[in-house]
Amino acid sequence: MRKNARPAARTPGFRAALLVGAWVLSVPGGAATCTPYIEEHPSGTTASLRPHSTAFLDCQVTEAGYRELVIQWLQSRPPTAPAIRSLYLGRAIAYPWISRYLADAALQSPDWAARVAQARPGEREWLAVPLLRDPLLLQRLAAPFAATAYQVVGVSFEKVLFGRADAYSSSRAAGAVKVPFDAQLWLRLEPRP
């Protein structure tokens, strides 16, 4: 390689190809569509719900889509497969209905605005714990498991992110109050007795 030669990744042709590829993926009805799937890990006891087969597409999973996908996955598992102990959902923001639920529940929580305003950034996550463990949210997440061999016994989470309520809640008039809208989520599963 010549001393002053640019690496191939920085050539104008390569950049153009990346831009064209990104454009094709972003065009509605373009070459790629969101195809969520569930991937079982080699251990056989954990699985991950992926919004799409590539990370280059911004895909969201509706509540109906989530339910349908989980039901189909569970029905397709052989009866001899190892028991699943957890289902990783990934980021809540990929599930707009979860993200909006968290933001709305925060706004309905007594004295939320004052508590979040007084909390230091590292303490905010503790304010979100009751919201992420809310039985109503758990019911919605557990719905596709209702007639299966599994039950959802809890939600684990980490890296809770906060943003403006007017951007993430159902109320665009909610203003700049900080609300949780994203976190890494896992469903804890157990065989149904």
Give the topology, please.
Blueprint: H1 12-26, E1 37-40, E2 46-50, H2 63-76, E3 86-91, H3 96-108, H4 112-118, H5 121-132, H6 135-142, E4 150-164, H7 165-168, E5 178-191
Parallel strand pairs: 2-3
Antiparallel strand pairs: 1-2, 3-5, 4-5
Can you walk through the features of this model?
The structure is a single chain. This protein is an alpha+beta fold and 193 residues long. It is 38% helix and 23% strand. It has helices spanning 12-26, 63-76, 96-108, 112-118, 121-132, 135-142, 165-168; strands at 37-40, 46-50, 86-91, 150-164, 178-191. Strands 1-2-3-5-4 form a 5-stranded mixed sheet. It is globular.
Concise synopsis of the structure shown:
With 193 residues, this protein is α+β, with helices and mostly antiparallel strands. 38% of the residues lie in helices and 23% in strands.
Keywords:
globular; 193 residues; 5 strands; alpha+beta; five-stranded mixed β-sheet
- The value of Rg in angstroms is 20 Å
Helix/strand/pairing category:
alpha+beta
In order across it, which strands form the biggest sheet? 1-2-3-5-4
Shape by Cα distribution = globular
Number of helices: 7
Q: Profile the largest sheet.
A: 5 strands, mixed
What's the number of extended β-strand segments?
Answer: 5
Q: Please provide the ordered H/E string of secondary-structure elements.
A: HEEHEHHHHEHE
Low-confidence parts, pLDDT < 50 over ≥5 residues? 4-31
Which percent range fits the helix content? 25-40%
| Residue-averaged pLDDT | 83
Distance from N terminus to C terminus (CA atoms, Å) equals 65 Å
Strand content: 15-25%
